[in-house]
Design goal:
By secondary structure, this protein is α/β, with parallel strands linked by helices. The chain has two domains: 27-217 and 409-468, Aminopeptidase (3-Layer(aba) Sandwich); 222-371, Alpha-Beta Plaits. The protein contains 14 helices and 19 strands. Strands 1, 2, 3, 6, 7, 8, 9, 16, 17 and 18 form a ten-stranded mixed beta sheet that branches. The chain has a four-stranded antiparallel beta sheet with strand order 12-14-10-15. It is globular.
Length: 473
């Protein structure tokens, strides 16, 4: 589908966009910065951190803004005292209208102080950049959403729909616990909504800092690990035989896997992404994007596939990520294992992926086993004008001439649990980053100060429009 040229009719909403690069910040912006700082500086890693502490800190701020005990709760799963999740609601005037959910995770990836130039659990501002673990992923959105809920209450905003907030724990370590999944399964009333806004998309800058596009994400690939294991009789390394070394078996099979490409499959989000990205690309690349979007043209797709990001958007991918084996330097290996990580397109079953691995590896001596909970197929939510209209309107006002471009995430977010549960979930932040990225999951994670403040303004006003629009018939 194409983005409709006309926008829906929205209730009159006053826009209040703060200055984006004030020094010193205004009192309003200073209050937000303090909230953001507090959240970043609460350690919420799996090893030693506590999401419950972070959830309670944000609950305290909501309470000070006027939210009552019936309007919010910190939900701690039994036996997991550090896995608390904050839920809250700003009630709307139309009890029949379905809510909007603002979803963000407050847990973060591990960070060792010895590896970082700065303390990862102290918010540091240097040369227009905020540094800290979670500064971008995902405490930026968690802070913005909490701040918006506070401002809506303070300003007396009366939405038509309920606006719900869920700050969840465990997105980075779902094998241990995932708060979004837990809330959907055990506390559905707190998160049930017509749709949810989540991480998964931001804004793109070129190498010179010029804005290229604002992204809106719909759908994501599904994560699945497979263990490949080859075994053999072993023996003394001075007497190697032919055809019985599991290391060679696995090495040959992985070489075949590296050479294999899963088939091209273009879904709605990728089709729209290619169509709209073609408008800001060079003529040659633009022609290839249009051809793949229209007909999945094989030659054009092969050229686009030279870009790992676009290749991943077009097809399922499986790649070897870890290997272990052998038991002594002077002995033939008896067992060799490798982990293959697959990112599977929506609509493709894990059974089909495993069967493809069997055919590509072409070695019956290699055992293929799915690792962890089986990946599931979550639907790609529709990019209707009800979703695109408000985001397009606010983006055009804040960043004239910068297109809003749909995309499918090639990673994984908590959106997969909500999409599977029937709550369409979209990635939308308005937080721009350049080609260098934000150091997410790596060293010296960061976000541009201006990008954070712009995202705050964008999301605050987009949510207002969503909360006052008519539901789709």
């Amino acid at each position: 589908m194409k983005i409709a040229s006309g926008l829906l009719s929205f209730a009159a909403v006053a826009f209040t966009v703060p200055a984006l690069a004030e020094t010193p910040p205004s009192p309003d912006l200073a209050a937000f910065r303090a909230l953001y700082k507090e959240l970043v500086e609460i350690n919420t890693t799996l090893s030693v951190g506590s999401c419950t502490d972070a959830a309670k800190a944000m609950q305290t701020r909501l309470k000070a803004a006027g939210y009552g005990d019936k309007d919010m709760a910190v939900i701690v799963p039994p036996g997991l005292p550090n896995k608390g999740n904050l839920v809250a609601v700003l009630h709307g005037t139309d009890k029949q209208a379905k809510a909007i959910l603002l979803l963000a995770h407050i847990d973060v990836v591990e960070a060792r102080r010895a590896d970082w130039k700065r303390d990862p659990f102290k918010l540091t501002e240097e040369n227009g950049i905020f540094y800290g673990r979670g500064a971008s992923d995902d405490k930026a959105m968690a802070a913005v959403f909490t701040d918006s809920m506070i401002r809506y209450k303070r300003d007396g905003f009366k939405p038509k729909r309920d606006i719900k907030l869920a700050l969840t724990c465990g997105e980075e370590t779902p094998h241990d616990f995932d708060g979004a999944k837990y809330l959907v399964e055990h506390h559905r009333a707190w998160v049930d909504a017509a749709f949810a806004l989540n991480e998964g998309a931001g804004g793109r800058l070129d190498k010179d800092g010029k804005r290229i596009a604002v992204d809106v994400q719909a759908g994501e690939k599904i994560y699945q690990d497979f263990q490949l294991e080859a075994t053999g009789p072993g023996g003394h390394s001075s007497r190697p035989g032919k055809g019985n070394n599991p290391l060679y078996h696995l090495a040959a099979a992985l070489t075949r896997l590296e050479a294999y490409d899963f088939p091209i499959a273009i879904n709605e989000a990728t089709k729209l992404n290619f169509e709209h990205t073609a408008e800001v690309e060079s003529s040659t690349t633009a022609a290839d994007l249009k051809a793949v979007a229209a007909t999945s043209d094989a030659e054009a797709a092969a050229r686009l596939a030279r870009d790992p990001v676009r290749n991943s958007m077009m097809r399922t991918t499986c790649v070897a990520t870890e290997i272990e084996g052998g038991h002594a330097p002077n002995a033939l290996p008896q067992r060799v294992r490798t982990n293959v990580n697959c990112r599977v397109l929506p609509g493709v079953s894990m059974a089909d992926v495993r069967q493809t691995l069997v055919k590509v590896l072409a070695d019956p001596s290699i055992e293929i086993t799915a690792v962890g909970a089986p990946g599931f197929t979550a639907p790609v939510p529709s990019l209707s004008n009800q979703i695109l209209g408000p985001a397009t309107q606010v983006a055009a006002r804040l960043w004239p001439g910068v297109p809003l471009i749909p995309a499918m995430s090639t990673g994984a977010t908590d959106g997969r649990f909500l999409n599977q549960a029937g709550i369409p979930t979209y990635g939308l932040s308005g937080m721009f980053a350049g080609p260098e990225g934000s150091g997410i999951h790596g060293l010296d994670e960061h976000i541009r100060v201006q990008s954070l403040y712009e995202g705050r303004a964008f999301l605050h006003d987009v949510v207002k429009l969503y909360a006052t629009q008519e539901e789709a018939s």
